[in-house]
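So, who can interpret the following?
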Amino acid sequence: MNYKFVLKALSFLLLTPFVFADDCGDIKDYLKEKYSNADFEDIIDKCNVNDQGKLTELTVINYYLQEEDVNKILSYNTIKDLTYKVKFKVRDLGHDYQTEVIEHPGYSSFPTAITNLPELEVLAFNYENVHNIKYWSHRNNTLIETGSLKLSKTLKKLSFEQINFKSQNMEELSTLTNLESLKLSYCKFDEVGLSPLGNIESLKTLTLYDSYIPNNINKIKSLEQLYFPELACESSDFYDFNGLDNLKSMEVTLVSDCKFDTSELEKLSEINIEGETSLFGVGVGSSISLKSPDNLKKLQLSHVKITSDTFKDISSLPNLEELSILYCSPDENIDFKSLECHDKLEKLTISHSSQDYTSKVLDVNFEILNDLNNLKYLDLSNNQIEKFPKQLASSKNLEHIDLSSNQIVDKIPESYNNLENLKYFNIAYNKSVGGKVLKNKNLKECFYGYNDEAKDICIPKDYEPNCLTGGEYKTCDDEEVESTDGKCGEGHGN
């Protein structure tokens, strides 16, 4: 008898259950036995184990699970990442796009079993109870019982959806001493607001989706990033964010007019504010009024109405390095000449949408280019500019120029060849552009246009362009020298 073969076979049989049995398989067997007609993937969307077969990552979708099922599924104390979704089915009422929610047949509360997961680091609890009233979605939020949020202090990332929070809930969350990120979507708060969260020194990132500004948000001194993906301001007064002493960046999408005072936040260096548009990215949304801190370095405004006071605030920011104004509409004429004092400005974008009748073309005063000595990036696309700005030639540090989609009928100034650092040049989609292609030694990307709009552009004789995109260009017939300093005569050409 071949004893070696027998021993190998016995070893394989003994080890097989341990190799193939894992926690995900255990859950699958349980659900298959109890819900034989259900697909495992319809209940367990994600199930991952470690090398020992222990459950570490789990996504549960609960349309009908009973409390005993939930307790079984959440009984694995090695879970580190848990997403738990309570979902409700709806029935069509047959008119005006209206639906109604069907009562959940099982256990729809926040599972207290989650409090028994000692290694939990990431938790998302989504309560998705939504029906339509005509064309609008209506959400029915739920409450979480007191004592249910005494979660493991290992938690680092936490999110909730459709919860009406009580102060007791916030008090329980305030004990999560390692929490770094909190996201609250479609949630509501009582008068205490977020005040208890000020006790969490590790909390760096807060996202409030489709919400108003809760009371006492400025008590969370540790915050560094603040996000409002959909924000409706309930007051016409300035909302005071001063007190968020460690805040570094702030991103907001407005669904109503808002006023923000961040003037005392010394660490705030970046603000991004966008107006919500219902026309697939076209249109100007709500109005924004800002009081910004002097140390602000990056500011982007898009699809919003800009008040004259806000632009005065922008003009007074001494450390601004990047300014972007996209598809906006001012409440009155803006004096761009006031930007000339921004000697630290490196990136400037001012663009209007040619497909957007609600945004206004901004009258850019090109004289500011004479003073923006550190400017490296300039985007003035979609502004109905009719002539090439000669002042660009004085911005010696420029690396990126975008004058596309304007109304330019002009020759390319040969003085642009003096921009030694220029790497990108785009003048496509203008009316009629002529002159010679640029010969800047560092130019890597250039777009001169197509067909009739660029038919008068030519390539100088004995010059091999290092970048050309678009149509075919003729060789220049003459080598007439163009003055680069506004004077005529010998010694004043290129």
Notes: The helical segments are 3-20, 23-34, 40-43, 67-73, 167-173, 308-315. The mean pLDDT is 87. The longest strand covers residues 55-62.
